[in-house]
Amino acid sequence: MMLHFREPAKLKTKGVIFEDVYAARDSATLENLKELSSKRKVIEDSINQNCYITEAIAREMSGGLTCPFQQDLRKLEQYLPLLENLVYHVDLLGGNHQIAWWTSELKIRALEIVPSDLVQSATLFREAAGVFLYLSQEVFPSLQPTLPAERPPEATSYMSTVMSLICLAEAQAVSIKKAEEKGTTAGLLAKLHYGVAEMLGEAIDVLYSANGQCKDISSCFMEFICSCKALHELSSQKYLAESLKDAGQVGIAIGILHDALINVKKKMPGEESHKSIFRKEVDVAADMLTKCERENEFVWQQKIASGDELPLPQGNKIVNAMPYRPKRWERELAFKI
């Protein structure tokens, strides 16, 4: 999107040693749990930036991949089928209190990965949206009885829904960049930007309707979502004004820009790096307004539209979540219960 949320870069993930949490009944199960821990440890080191291997070794371990983001994805692809197998066998014994206790002791986190290629980025965001949707609809509802009352937001269905919406908004924002490069019409770009704002608005609504759980959400995270929404609304209004001006409706274009600048200035973020981006976008809109007003004064002399005379914004959503289909490496697991 137009802003970058830097807080996740400061997060650290807690180590999980599965064979210390689940008591294996036989040597085969113990080896499978150890392999799962080993695969997770590689991901933990990457997240915590504790990996000190050379680029050549990292490339060899990932099957020749040179991009660090793709190497991280390969690590996840090798870890998730083993984790899915554990989840499958734990679900089979879901009514067992000992299994439920062991599961409640696990604390697992996620990581955001963003490559520079626009097409690949959009695909990855759609895939991520599908994973979060799967967690929200299929995983967390069944885990609620076994999770502790005081749990982090990321272990809730509502937060997974929020993250799915944010990933979709990111995917559409990337698609907009591609559309801008191709010279897509201002009218369509206005609808695409407002589509992003609508997705972020849905995410905000979910957070505030989460039965008071929103108090555990980082204020920086909330500001990030609200600020992104405000910027995409401003971009939508700028493109809409451009489209109307090109159609000779300068008075309406001026009214839209005037309202847009008043609204966005009320939503100035506290984060300094975000403020600079806000000011830049506001300056662009202000310059556009000044030029339109000058042109209208000397050429068009149209009445400046306001209030109900202004068109309502319209959003267009062109991305959807790619369904997540879990892959499981079928291996028998037996526990001492």
From TrEMBL:
The cross-references to PROSITE patterns, in alphabetical order and at most eight, read: BRO1
Task: Show the InterPro entries listed in the entry.
Answer: BRO1_dom, BRO1_sf, BROX
Instruction: Domain (BRO1): give its ranges.
Output: 97-284
| Pfam families assigned to the protein according to its UniProt record, in alphabetical order | BRO1
Q: Which SMART domains does the annotation name?
A: BRO1 (SM01041)
Family matches, as PANTHER family: BRO1 DOMAIN-CONTAINING PROTEIN BROX, ENDOSOMAL TARGETING BRO1-LIKE DOMAIN-CONTAINING PROTEIN
**Protein family membership:** Belongs to the BROX family.
What is this protein called in UniProt? BRO1 domain-containing protein
Which organism's genome codes for this protein?
Citrus sinensis (Sweet orange)
Organism placement in taxonomy: Eukaryota, Viridiplantae, Streptophyta, Embryophyta, Tracheophyta
